[in-house]
TrEMBL record:
Keyword Hydrolase appears in the UniProt entry: no
Signal peptide: 1-18
Top-level taxon of origin: Bacteria
Feature: compositional bias, Polar residues: 368-377, 391-401
Keyword Signal: yes
Protein name as it appears in the record: LTD domain-containing protein
Positions with biased composition (Acidic residues): 404-443
Start and end residues of each stretch annotated as Disordered: 330-377, 391-446
Keywords, comma-separated and alphabetical: Signal
Family matches, as SUPFAM superfamilies: alpha/beta-Hydrolases (SSF53474)
Amino acid sequence: MRFGIIISALFFPVFVFAACTQSGESVVYVNGIFTSKFEAQNNLDNLRDEFNSRVSNSGTHFINGYNPSHLGGAGDSIQSVTQALGRPVSSFDLKTILMQIHPEVTTQKILLVGHSQGTFYTNELYAYLTQNGVPEKSITVYNIATPAHFVADGNKYLTSANDNLITKVRELTASVGAREPLPSNILIPLSKPETAELWRGHAMSGEYLVGAPQRIVSDISSALDALSSEEVPVSEDGCFTPLDKTLGYKAAHLAYAVGDPTATAIRSGATAVNNSATSLAGAIKNTFSSIIGNRSQAGAVALAVTNIPAPQALLEEENIPSTPVEIQNEASPRVETPFPITPTPPESPQEAPAEQTTQPLAPLESPATATTSQPSPETASIIVILQTGSRTQSVPANASGNGDAEEPPPLEPEPEPEPEPEPEPEQEPEPEPEPEPEPEPEPVPEVTQLAVTSPQNNAIFSSATVQLNGTSTALALVTAIYGMTTATTTASDAGDWSFSFELPEGATEISLSALAADMLESATTTRSVVVDITPPGVPSVSITECAHSLSDDFCLVPTTNVTLAWEGVDGAAQYQIVLNGALGAIEMGTSTTVAVADHASSTIALIAHDSAVNVSATSTAREMFAYTQPLVINEIAWAGTDFSVNDEWVELKNLSPYTITLFSLALEASDGAPYVQLSGTVGPTDGTLDLDMYVIERAASSVNGTTYGIVDAFELLSHSGEELKLAWWSGTATTTIDQTPAVETCGGWCAGESAGSIGFAMFHGTSTARISMERVQGVTDGMLAASWQSNDTYTTSGSDSAGKKIYGTPGRENSKGWPEVGWSCDSDYTAITSGQFYVPPNADCIYFTGFISEKTKRFGALYQGTIGSSTPLSGYSFDKARGGNIAKDDTASIRSPNPTPADGTEFFAAIWEQRIGPKVSSDTTLFGEYFTSGTEPPHTNFRVISWVYGTGQ
C-alpha cells in the first residue's frame, strides 16, 4: 500500500488540501544519486524506525521526497557535478519533488533531510520554500554525506571521513578550483568494507544509519526542537505555494519518460561494443570529465568516446530532445539516443561567490576533455564529435590496432565572403620606378608551450582513474601516449587542458607533447604515476609487557603505558593504532607506546597504510588489563622478633581480585641490598583465609603460624632505616609498584620499634617488645609517613622461634591502630577522644587498656559529671589487656534516671590498674572515692576519657 500511495503522489495532481497545522513536524527525506524508489523508501523507513525507537511520544511525519535517476544515471551525475560547481542544470527534479510533497506536508515545522546528491536538492528546496510561504523559523536543513559546500540555513550536517565518494568529489572539485564539499566531521567505522571502492562508506542505511544512528537521531531531534510555528490563516495552498506544470516541465517529463530506458539501452550497447563492463566508478569519472574537463568547443568528446549521452537536454529547462547522436561501431548495429549534442557558444567564466548562497550561479566554462583511442580488434572505429563555433564534424579515431593514433583532419574553415568591387581610382601619372627592397627573412615559428601542473612526478594514486592537468598555448592539440594508447585533447582559449585515464596497477610513464597552428611542436615531457589499489598485508601486533604478565590466565600488567611491537608488512608505509575499536595515532616505525586506562581491560589492534590511501584489514586484537598497584608492601618486622633480632620478615598484600604470579617481581632496597627475587603466587583479595598475604622470612622459623610465602636469607635491614621498593620487570624496564618512605622522611623507619612499650605495672614497671611496622589499612601511597603505624598490641598473630607472641600480624590483616587507652561504643570500635561530643549507640562498648601491662588486673567504670563531682553509672573488672564488653546496660545507665540526657551533660570513662596483695588496700574503693568526691587516688597508673553528651550543634 505504501508504494501505491507514493506513485500516485508523483504522477497525479492532488486537488484536496489540508490545513497547515502548528502541531507536529514533517521530515522530508531526499535520496542521493543512483537510488531506486524502493531503496529510497527503505532508507526513509530505516530513518523513521531509528528516530521513533529513540525519541518517545514522537508525532513526527516522515515523507519521501524521491529524487529519481535519469538517462541511465548520466543525468544525475551531470546534475550532481554542476550543482557542486554552484550551477544546477535542471529544475525538473526540484519541481517534481515540490509537487510530490506538497499534499503530504501538513505541518508548519519542516525538516529537510538530504543524503548525497539529495543534499543539493534540500538546499534548493529550502530556498524555494522560504520564498513561498514557509517562515525561516519553521524550516531547517540537515544533510548527510553531502558533496555540497554549504548547508542552506547553516544548520548541522554529517559527513564521515570514511566516505570515499565525498573524498573523490572533493578531489575533483579541488582540481578545477570549484568549491569543495564541507569537511568531514565524524569517523564512522566501515560497516561494509567489501563495497566497491568509490561507494565505500557512503550508503545511507548500510553505513550512516548503522554506524552513527544515535548521532543522526540526536541532530534531527535538536533541529526539530529549534523550530517554531505561529497562528496563520487557513490557505488553499497548504503549507507552501504549489507549483504548476508548465509546458516545459511536461515536455521534459515526456523526454525523461522516453530517454531513461533508451539511455540505459545505449549504455548497455556501448558496453557490448567495447567487450568490457563499464564500471559505475568509470561512468561517474567520465561524467565528471564531461562537466569539469570540457569547454563548449569540445563539450561532447568524452561523452561520445565513453558512449554516454550528452546532457545538453538538461542544460535548459525548456529544451526538448530532438536530434539523435550517432555512435558508430563496426562491431555492432547503429544505436541512437533521443538526446541531442547541440553546439553551445562558449560563455565567459564566472567567479565563485564569496559567501554561501542557495541561488544557482551562472554557467561555468570547463577545460577541454581528452578523447582516448585504444586499439582493439573488436572496435573498428569510434566517431568523435568535435564542435567548433557553429560547425560540427565527425572524426573517425584510428582503429588499425598498431597503437598509432591518427590526428583528426583539420577543420574546414568557413568560406570568406567575396569583397565588393571598389570604384576605380582616377588615373594619375605613373611615378618613377623605385628600386626593389631586399626581401625580409621569413619569421621563425614560435614553439608551442606545454606544462604539466598536476600530478607531481611519481605521484601515487589509490584509484585506477588518474587525471593529468596542465597548460599550453591556446587551442593547441595536446597528445598523450602511454604503452599502446594515444589520446589527444585541445587546450582551451585560456590554454588549460586535462586528461583522465584508467591505468593499470603499477608505474606508468606518460609522454606528452603539444602543437598549435603555425607553431613548432613542443618538446616532449614525461610524467610518471603509480597506481596502487592493492592494500598492504595485515600486520600482527604484540604487547611486550604481556610476556611478563602478573597472571597465568590473561595479560595483567601493573602499568598504564604499554609497548606495542610488530613486524613490517609488504606495501606498508605507516601503521595506525586501533585502541578499543577507535582509530588512534599514526606510526612510521614498528613499535610505539600506548596509554591505556587503569583498572580496565583494553583491546589493541593495528592497521597498515600504504603510500596511497589503501588500508589493510585490522589485525587480531590483543587484550590486556592494567592494574597499577595490584600488590603492596604491607608489614615490615625490621627489628626482628623477641627471640632473635635476625628473624626479620616482610609481608606483601594482594589488593587485586586476581591471583598474582610473582616471577617478574622483586623486593629491593634503594641501595640495592637487600634484593629478593620473588616466586610462586599470591591469592586474590576475597575475604577468605587471608590467602592474599605473602610473607618473606629470613629463616624458616622466623614466623610460625603462616603458610604462604618464601624463605630467603636476605641481607639484614638497617635499624637506622631503609627505603624498600616492590619492582616489576616489564621486559624493557623496571616499574616501581610500591615503596616505603625515604629514610629522610622520618629520620629512619616511620613506625615499628625495637623496644616498644607494651604496658606498665606498679610492681614491675614498663614491659617492652619488638613491634612491627604496619601499613594503615586502606591507604595506597606507601611513600607517606601517615601511611604507616606501629602494631597496636591488641591485634597480633603468629609466634617466633621460641613460641612467644609476635607483636605484629604476619599473614593476617593489620591491626586497627587502637590507642593505648580509650572507650567506644561504635561498631568499628573507633575510640573517642577526650573532650569530644558523643552520643553512644545502643550497642556494646569497649575499654582500651593497653597502657597497663599484660597479666595485670584492671578495672573500668563510667561516671556522669566531672572528677571529684560525679555519679557512678557502671563498673567492670577486666582480666586481659583488651577488657570485656559493656553491654546494653551501659547505655541504659546513661539514660537513667533521665531517659535522654540533656545536650551538654558531662561524662567520663575511667580505667585503672587493680593491684592485688595483702599489703594493698582496695584500689576500687579508693578510686571510686577519688572520682566521686575528689580524694587522693591510690596510685598513678590510671587514665580518664572525658566526653560530653550530644552532637555539639
